[in-house]
């Protein structure tokens, strides 16, 4: 009987074979091309074990040999690399007015990027879920036609997602208690591959950690700069969601008790004083208006328009107050500003940095860097797809490849 | 060559034997008494490996056999338990006016609790470090005389501690850039056992997680209620310190832009509006005055004194604003109020809870519970000692048993 731990547990008591398979897979992901002897030397696994693990991963089609080394001391060794192409990881992002799908292979190479119109708030949740399932089905079928095994599907949602993948609250979609995980699995007829649902800021943070300019950063926070502002918090290399998965709601921390009302019903929330609504200086009714308006603000700021620059300065100061909370409480290495903060960053970043520097008690602002995202608006979908690879790397391996029965030859 | 990971790594590429030794040690810690077959069945290690690992841990004096089982199906098996007594883990807490030492054995049983006068702010850092080293030496010698191997020493400091154990800033001690780790190791003549230095709130959080009323909670924040207010943040079962170890500074997040000045030079910090200075409604010059004054406030509150209750209500409301930041951003299962918040909790907790409930966007306040600590004022020292056990459980095993020569004490 496993009871609750009395203290931290650095490793779970999981099946050692699966752990070792994932150790080898991750090692090859990071160090390929490499030999079986390299793997044994660096992981501490013995050579016979490594050979058996490599054979298993080759059977599954995840690794392949690429011939002998040259240029090294000792006997030539057969080099091994990741075999990315036979596999696909699917990420879908739900936004208020569009759906994004991003598919990558096992090696993280992008296979597909689609954007589709989405009724968002105009649809009831059931119809919206059907739209998402329809897109997922089209993507999965495409992968099947290309002969790629689907490793998993992950869906990013702008809202509070619980541990079972239900969306408890997504104000911008008008959703309350939508069992997106269950509905999607049913709509996809209980697929073989795993399905995961997660908050969009969380997936975007994971995208930055894997693919972004600060990839590999172990302590990183991503702030979505959309109509809402959410935080994806990565600490010690992993996303931290809190007890029920509702962490990251920096957007609803009060920044200014005298500030604007927030759509959540509270006053002076970060989202209300430093979100896109504050940049536009008005309530945002329909998200489709935003893109040209932000472009106009960027033009005005470039032209030195005083009112525009003053407004951006005010918003940046309040954003800096929010980032200073992250800085004092979490001491991240980097805070990445996403969404519409990206085009606005040239006019806001210096003020944000100054505010954070003044408000952080740690010497040298704890080493914090603040930067605009380089991943664009599909960061969350890309992070969702990356999350599927994380699952595989953590030991959620696909079953051995089903080789189709040969067709009966004609007599 | 190990380069930085491109993605999260669920397990490090550490030596598998050490990992497996620590898996067995932790299993026995949680499930003793248990048999070798139990260990094999639950960990996935094979029986021969388990026998070898158990023999190794018995050689080191960490496990012992306690005879055969009865009352179970099948052949009787030799049962194994942790052999706590031959080992000691030493925790020391530095406070402004006293030092606390707590020693526990490998099984977590308390062996010793000492409190000593400490000059605190009146001493220069060199003298203060000598005092700490002197106390450590006396504790270590006591353990040697008792025939116990010292597994490690961990020291809790009220300040910003970097990753190498240097205290960068401890305002209440008047310390800036004190290499406490290095100074202590030198003063202890480079001991065999590991030495660790950490922020006091961090160690107190670890004490709660291991020994407190919410032990085993995977997402827990501890707030020190001393002159300063610091947070120890445990997420997914582990302390999260941030990139340079400066996380947890909720005490210097601005709660009220119109609030009191803080000793850090900023305005309206949580520490200034909801720390013990705010409870006493004045600047605190010497910490020795606090204890009787808090007792007096508790008496007045019990007697229904209106001014006292109003002041505690005001402080509780501001404390609630701070806890709501934790709640929205981190979604912890429990926030534990320590230090002087403990005797004040009966008059503050309801207001704190109400404020947090109103300010948290997650349904049902994300499941958060807020509670007063049950561990008393030596939580940080106890957590420091527990941290030494964590190190052992994570694979930092002591060498085969050697009882050290006593260290020379000052003449």
From TrEMBL, chains A, B:
Domain HTH marR-type as annotated: residue spans: 24-64
Taxonomy, superkingdom: Bacteria
InterPro entries documented for this protein: ATPase_NBD, HTH_MarR-typ, ROK, WH-like_DNA-bd_sf, WH_DNA-bd_sf
Family matches, as CDD domains: ASKHA_ATPase_ROK_BsXylR-like (cd24076)
One Pfam family named in its UniProt record: ROK
Alphabetical UniProt keywords: Kinase, Transferase
GO molecular-function term, one example from the UniProt record: DNA-binding transcription factor activity
Family: Belongs to the ROK (NagC/XylR) family.
Protein name, per record: Sugar kinase of the NBD/HSP70 family, may contain an N-terminal HTH domain
């Amino acid at each position: 009987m496993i009871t609750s731990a009395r203290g931290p547990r650095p490793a779970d008591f999981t099946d050692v074979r699966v752990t070792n398979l994932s150790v080898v897979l991750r090692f090859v992901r990071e160090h390929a091309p490499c030999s079986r002897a390299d793997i044994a030397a660096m992981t501490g696994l013995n050579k016979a074990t490594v050979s058996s693990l490599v054979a298993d991963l080759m059977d599954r089609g995840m690794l392949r040999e690429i011939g002998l080394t040259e240029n090294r001391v000792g006997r030539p060794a057969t080099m091994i690399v990741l075999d990315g192409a036979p596999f696909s990881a699917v990420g879908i992002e739900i936004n208020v007015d569009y759906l994004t799908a991003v598919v990558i292979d096992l090696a993280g190479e992008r296979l597909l990027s689609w954007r589709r119109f989405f009724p968002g708030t105009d649809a009831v949740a059931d119809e919206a879920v059907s739209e998402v399932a329809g897109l997922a089905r089209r993507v999965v079928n495409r992968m099947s036609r290309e002969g790629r095994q689907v490793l998993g599907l992950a869906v990013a949602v702008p809202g509070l997602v619980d541990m079972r993948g239900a969306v408890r609250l997504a104000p911008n979609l008008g959703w309350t208690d939508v069992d997106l995980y269950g509905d999607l699995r049913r709509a996809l007829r209980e697929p073989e591959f795993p399905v995961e649902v997660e908050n969009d800021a969380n997936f975007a943070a994971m995208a930055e950690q894997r693919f972004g300019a600060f990839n590999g950063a172990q302590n990183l926070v991503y702030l979505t700069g959309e109509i809402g502002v959410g935080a994806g918090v990565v600490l010690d290399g992993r996303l931290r969601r809190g007890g029920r998965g509702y962490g990251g709601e920096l957007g609803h921390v009060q920044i200014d008790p005298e500030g604007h009302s927030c759509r959540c019903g509270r006053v002076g929330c970060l989202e209300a004083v430093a979100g896109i609504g504050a940049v536009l200086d008005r309530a945002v009714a329909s998200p489709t208006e935003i893109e040209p308006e932000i472009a106009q603000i960027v033009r005005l700021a470039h032209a030195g328009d005083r009112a525009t620059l003053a407004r951006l300065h005010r918003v940046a100061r309040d954003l800096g107050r929010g980032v200073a909370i992250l800085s004092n409480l979490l001491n991240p290495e980097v805070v990445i500003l996403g969404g519409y903060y990206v085009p606005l960053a040239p006019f806001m970043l210096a003020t944000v940095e100054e505010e954070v520097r003044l408000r952080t008690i740690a010497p040298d602002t704890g080493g914090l860097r603040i930067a605009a995202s380089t991943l664009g608006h599909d960061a969350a979908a890309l992070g969702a797809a990356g999350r599927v690879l994380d699952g595989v790397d953590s030991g959620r391996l696909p079953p051995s490849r089903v080789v189709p029965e040969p067709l009966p030859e004609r007599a």
